[in-house]
Known about the structure:
mainly alpha
Amino acid sequence: MTAGFLLFPGRAVEGTPVTEPPARRGEDLLDEALVHLAATGPEFGGGLSNHGPMATEAMIALGRPQAVIPWLDRYRKRLDAHPSTRERIQGDAWRETLGRYDRAGDWIAFFDVALKEASWSDVLATWAPRLAPGLAGVAMHGLIRTGHAARSLSQRDNPLRRHELAEGLGYWAARYTVLPERRGKTEKHGLPSRIVASVPRLPDEKRAARGLIVDSLRALEGFAPFEAVADLADVSGDAPAFVSDLTATFAKAYLREAATSGRIIAFVHTVTGPSAVRLILPHVKAASRPDLLRYAWQAAAAVDAALGDPAGAIPANGVEPVAKDADDLADRAIATGDEHAIKFSEACLRENALRPDPVYMRAASDAVRRLA
Length: 372
């Protein structure tokens, strides 16, 4: 079992009779949600990611299963239909099909087949390292969806959840995006908290005026100072500890940006993306973990480089959390109805449970307040 899956395993919604164990009921509701979402595509509205499977799984992790179907009934009305298949991806042809969203249906079908021929953990162990260099695509949503799917499979293995893993991996592959990178030696290797100040910021004149997060990251092409950023991180040590340092570092970055630039959603992903790596790490061989850490750091740093406020400063002592405790935060996140508030709160609470740091509660509390 993945640590921290059920943050509030014994809680039921007030006034709702519990006729079976809450954890079991939550598992059933997650499967029901996946049935409802089966005909929906990875994206909608011209490039927005479908958060339905991720947010519902996060609600289960928060111990709020009764919130799933009412939330989903509202959310799925905006979603587009699932992409159709065009041509089967075979042999080594997968390499030339990376990053082609027009082949998203084919990628999902490819992973559906792979997951029938091998265990889900073996498929994940093979493909997460292959896809790691392109995890920045669509603000890491392919990675995040894969992480949530992997955690759900660690709780219950069934065809619905294996298909959801195929959806996550397929989306990751179809939106595979490589950021500028130059491998070489540098004297600034270290943990994210020690090197984040070295991330070069794009000059204002080079920044994307508006658009999706991916449009902002695209502006890094040709920006030579960013090419060495991936190499700054020392990913040779303890992988879970690296993820903790990375998520805490960017929870602080979130607080800075929320107070200065107001770019909330972009910096939410600098925490939820790396935190999804934690959900994948147990299923990946030790030799492959450094690449996942390297590119999670690079992707978070890319958001900082392309969108961060160079003059911004984290508010003194952070932001006092509006939530009294983790349980209250979960309730407030669900009450917003906002998929980012729900996912961010769950990720921050999970990270805090593993390595306590007040920044997680402050950042999640701030996001819940702003997204309500």
